[in-house]
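Lesson 9: reading folded outputs for more than one chain in a single document. The general rule is that every protein is listed as its sequence immediately followed by its structure tokens, and records are never interleaved. Here is the first one.
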Amino acid sequence: MGGSRSYSANPSDYKLLEEVGYGASATVYRAIYIPFNDVVAIKCLDLDRCNSNLDDIRREAQTMSLIDHPNVIRAYCSFVVDRSLWVVMPFMSEGSCLHLMKIAYPEGFEEPAIGSILKETLKALDYLHRQGHIHRDVKAGNILLDNNGTVKLADFGVSACMFDSGDRQRSRNTFVGTPCW
């Protein structure tokens, strides 16, 4: 993780290198945090194309910044640049399990690897549930790996809080996320 390092909310402190992932309303870049010469990932959420309202986006960024578990992606910081919200987080060099299966394991991972990945993912889910969060989009594309074999669960875009009331509580009884996962 970033340890006790503090990352700035100044976009000129970051150099975007290349796109490493994308979704309906966000693109993820590998970047350099210039003051530390540290490789990071920056998730750029297009605020104009987001299906979520600003409160949902703010909630995701806040959830990510408060996370303190080795198997859950934590945001170092977040800030608005033009019409995008930049969320700075650790760079997971091996990418998602989905990406790895597509490029190197077209028949799927072997059972011992699956067991190891799922064990770490379940630790992440246990932590989130104990903190009152429901992820609601666990899938291969949201399970990230680095070159040390560290497993981290990412993407809180459709998460819900178990302790909320009203509309968010009712939303927990709805289907969201990715079908078949």
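And here is the second record, again sequence then tokens.
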Amino acid sequence: MTDTVWAPDGSNLVVHADNAEYLPTLPDGAFTLIYVDPPFNTGRVQRRQETRMVLNAGGEGDRVGFKGRSYDTIKGALHSYDDAFSDYWSFLEPRLVEAWRLLADDGTLYLHLDYREVHYAKVMLDAIFGRECFLNEIIWAYDYGARAKYRWPTKHDNILVYVKNPAKYHFDSAEVDREPYMAPGLVTPAKRELGKLPTDVWWHTIVSPTGKEKTGYPTQKPEGLIRRVVAASSRPGDWCLDFFAGSGTLGAVAAKLDRRFVCVDQNQAAVDVMAKRLAAKAQFTAFPPDPGA
């Protein structure tokens, strides 16, 4: 059996790792909620450093792996490539297959993308999960940044929602924050005070450049957005996973709502941000374990 630093009765975790290497160490059905906000397919030139681990028989390598074995990290070629469809989806598909495996029977996946890729992603997730497991497409609408003059300005992201089992998934609308009625005079005082359940179009501002929530991480998502996801699709004590964790918003919200979490990211800058944001809420580790950490 493969060793893992995660345990169902263990601590919250922030893991500095390549998620393609780390996710297979986790057991089937471990998570009630998985939120994934991968890098978007932008069409820009990206760079990827090849690395491989080589067993060091003398025990003097720069990393320690399973059962205390010592490894040397060997850097290979630094490749430049167009962030085109084939490269992007060959990168993302195996990770989404892992997400399906890791979801509990009552679990839900939220995949956060933009308008360029959401249509292809739905076809892919229909194949992985089954079309009957598609629950929603959420539109996160915002109004910031420059406005294009040569086409309709794009001011939204897309979040695809899939469930592991359409007969057993958890969804609690009573726990979701409410919105004010647009015509409050047409509803009863009790309904007006309670507010209405959000639809699948969520108007929510970005993280304020001067607000206390801001971490400085460039793709940080607002806690209010993730709070709806966590509140609706998990219960206190449930495990939540984000394997493109970025600034750690999923972890921050999960901790506030009494959920448990695992946040994974390969980017050192992201781990540094989470080290400050989640220092009192999680244990930090590397995979494979780094003897210098």
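What the second record shows: The chain is about 25% helix and 25% strand.
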